[in-house]
Amino acid sequence: MPESVKLVNPRSLKVNKDNPRLIFHQKELDELQDSIAKQGILVPLAVFKEGKGFQLLDGERRWRCALKLGLSSVPVLVQPRPAKLQNLMMMFAIHHARKDWDPLPTALKLQDLEKEFSAKQGRYPSEAELAGLASMSRGEIRRLKKLLALPETYRDELLKELEKPRSEQVLTVDQVLEATTAASALRKRDVVTAKGEDGLRRAIIQKFRSRVENNTVAPRLLAKLARGVQRNEVPLQVAQRVAEKLIKDPKYSISDAFRDSVAQSDFEHSIEQLVDRILDRLKEHDERGYKMTKKLLATLSTLAKRIERLREE
């Protein structure tokens, strides 16, 4: 339980190194600072005693604004000093409940949470345990794990992007993840080599930067290309050719590559799946002993005529 609420000099407060929020956008800080200048700090900062001063648990943005405004005191809610693992858990819970963070800094701090749990328990937490520790869903944990698996150069690039004002940011975490998944899918089908995989990922990322690609999930079309190669519906040489063009031609889009390789076979595959479902339903119709109605017979007759015309074309 909280010990007390008091007014303290903001200069006696220290940043909590376990705070998963590593990026503070200036525009948001300016808006908060204007509010504090007019109304003061309405919600006390959460702190715990640290040496001669205090360490923040919650309220770093309010604290930064207080320093900028030159306030002589801020209200704080003094909490008992938490253990390292508890501190990390509290920081995740407090901030996640209030506002979404930038995912990459959160992923980096998640590593610290895992390490601290491992130091205490002698093993790394399971996905379910980690989700509970971080007050997140398992899906969110998996997404953050994918970010941690990125090469360091991409993580550094994303962190630099996050430091820009939001209006100036071009590249997003999701775009890098989608590019990574697509390149990996083609690598697994030998469409690109291991070296070509990174070249393709870099090319897709650059297409996002240059606005050749505006749809974040466009790389999923390349996963369809990989499946087309797997089903022997697209010749490997065709897939390799469009992948190479994606890498070398800055203006060649993913939709261009999809059109030039797998668009028709993917469309026809979807038709095959629909027909399979129709056949299954007709089989079930027969097994149930239903009598075919005139309306259904007419519909099937129309379908049969259409198929016959396609065979004649």
Quick summary of this structure?
The protein is of the alpha/beta class and 313 residues long. 62% of the residues lie in helices and 8% in strands.
The low-confidence runs, each spanning 5 or more residues with pLDDT under 50, are none
Strand content: 5-15%
- Measure the end-to-end span: 79 Å
Number of strands: 5
Largest sheet: 5 strands, mixed
* Arrangement of strands in the largest sheet: 1-5-3-4-2
* Average of per-residue pLDDT values: 88
Secondary-structure class: alpha/beta
Taken from the alpha-carbon principal axes, the silhouette is elongated
Order of SSEs, N→C?
EEHEEHEHHHHHHHHHHHH
Q: Care to describe what's here?
A:
The chain is of the alpha/beta class. It folds into three domains: 1-81, Conserved hypothetical protein from pyrococcus furiosus pfu- 392566-001, ParB domain; 170-261, no CATH class; 265-312, no CATH class. Helix content is 62%, strand content 8%. It has 14 helices and five strands. The protein has helices at 26-39, 60-69, 84-98, 103-121, 127-134, 138-148, 152-162, 173-188, 194-209, 220-230, 236-248, 254-259, 263-287, 294-312, and strands at residues 4-8, 13-14, 45-50, 53-58, 74-79. A five-stranded mixed beta sheet has the order 1-5-3-4-2. Helix 3 runs antiparallel to helix 4 (103-121). The chain is elongated and about 90 Å long. The termini are far apart. The model has no long low-confidence stretch (mean pLDDT 88).
